Fold these 3 entries.
Entry 1:
Amino acid sequence: MRPAIVVFLTLILTASGCGSGSSTQDIETGGDSAIVVAPTSTATPTTRPESTTTTSTTSTTTSSSTTTTTTTTLPSTLDIDGSPLIEFSIEVDPALDLDRDELVAFIIETLSDPRSWVSRGAGFRLVDEGGLFTIIVAEPSRVDQLCRPLQTLGRYSCARNGWIAINSVRWEEATEGWTGGIKAYRQYLINHEVGHYIVGPTHSSCPGVGELAPLMMQQTKGLQGCLPNGWVDPG
């Protein structure tokens, strides 16, 4: 077993590491840069309302003459191998015109990628509601509410209070100075915010001009001369 997996074995006991206190370090663009380290203390998870979303992989339409089955874009399995197996759910702000099935497929594809947290031993399972956290893409005003008392200011995203709250403007437009394309930025958002539930609220800094940015660097705030990166282990 790789030493890094030890970090994950502390996950369930430290799930609220980015959901306690008033520091702005656990929002994606807030706080001072710091080296990422595993949490050293435990905390009680914050209770949050359960998600009311459901997962459907097929739909059937029956007429008097034929029966047609339509398969959604979801992958064949919603379990991603690894230990511990982290259960999570997905929600879309009803105010947004965003296809939930497409969002689910994108998140599963991202978390399943060998460059993501599975490279460190993590596993994930999508559930209908609840779990360790709910990933939601939401309007800026709702993100601000879900992230309180952190100040996301209508612009930023956070991992807090049992939520990974993604600002919809960032989801659609990325951020100024990002040079990696919108898909890469979305991969970065998902992996970075999930990372706060795994390694805690701290952030990394750019190791040098022209080098890949560490995943836990606040890349929405600026690349500091680094190249954009949305993966734990990009190699």
Entry 2:
Amino acid sequence: MQEPREILRKIRRLELQTRRLVNSSFAGQYHSVFKGRGMNFDEVREYASGDEIRSIDWNVTARMNAPYIKKFTEERELTVMLLVDVSASGSFGSVSFSKREVGAEVASILAFSAIQNNDKVGLILFSDHVELLIPPKKGRLHILRLIREMLFFEPKGSGTNMITALETLNRVMHRRAVVFILSDFIASDFSKPFAVASRRHDVVAFPIFDPGEIAFPHIGIVTFEDAETGQQVDIDTSDTETMDQLAELEKNRREEQRKILQSRGVDIVPLRTDQDVLRPLRAFFERRERRLALK
């Protein structure tokens, strides 16, 4: 159990780090690629040269004996939901940070980007069940609470049940939201609930990978334990053929995962614990901007 002072120090450090990144890199991009729910009526004004004829309000025009148009402004406010995996496999990290820490960092960047845009942010932490649900709200103190829970919440479950998390999302979010899912996606079939979620919401998946999951030093027979199930298996790390087969299985698993998500219309932003998160985030925003420009 970490001391409260140490917890506060880590939260404050992550806040300063992520706010700096948001202010320098992502605030404008976030604003441009995530749209509100629609258009709000602003005013009726007299038609001017260059205005869209389709905007003419014929009722007002008839009363005033002159052409008038309806003016609308974009409804910018969004609801953002962070679905963060806190299962036991997330504690693994062969480099500086664990998968859970990387997920918390990216989720913090997205959360601070959202509140700068005056959006609400909520949180679902899940393992083999939903561990915590925090309804969407605005404000810095609310975001700091979300960061604390993402970093230090102690889950009761160890496995991963993404189906339960997505079903909870679909049950509690009645209006369209932007949904960011951060997980290593080591889970059973989640195709159907993703299909439902992506029809209702704008869903973005962040699969988190650690290179230590497939790359091991050649040190002979090692007993490996699945962090989520407790199952143990002995593997000869000096056996190149065996290690190559394991690496191929992991590669195939992630490729199948990608195909499932893409088939459901879900954006995918792969993350690695041994690489800076800024590059994939920037690439994601740039892809979204290009896609919107083509519409």
Entry 3:
Amino acid sequence: MTNADMATALLMGLAGAGHCIGMCGGIASAIGLSSQNRRALPLAYHSGRVASYALIGAALGAAASTIQMDLWRLLLRYAAALMLIAMGLYTANWWLGLRRLESVGSRLWQPIQKLTRPLLPAKHPHQAFLLGTAWGFLPCGLIYSALAWSSTQADPINSALLMALFGVGTLPAMLTASLGAQWLTRWLNSVWVRRSMGAALIAWGLFNLSMLVRHSLMHHAA
């Protein structure tokens, strides 16, 4: 895992600010506003959410590591590059194809959502943490894209770390929603910021894709 991978994970989370607010902003705001201690519950909730991303990333990284095939690893890298491009297009609102993944994931989310009902309204940090852990399974195309990309590490620790960094990248938007600082949310959700971040993800995905094609052609020629 390189520094570029870690930076990309953070950018992916930050780039999804507008989408995160739309998907999770309501409950994040409710937790912040309903708490007598407006910091403890939101921090516990978002800690649970990041922990959930890391756990799922570790599981997928471990699953990917069990297949010891060069072709499999190569296909994963191609898929990761394409998912970065798809995420960039989605972030910039130029193509919303990732919503199809969300419709599939909603089937998994429904039984999990029922389990969260006894936790609402969250009054204690442990309740908020469990709620955030459950909310990490919310059907979200950006999360699915990040998971597909992180799983190419084919290592549970590295995949978990990248997903944790992705979660950290979402914190500026989500914490401002919880704590009521709407100016940063509006800035992150502005058209030019979303398009700039989306373009950066697309460029990085295209760069990775071009390097993979070049490597494949050189390997085939050899």
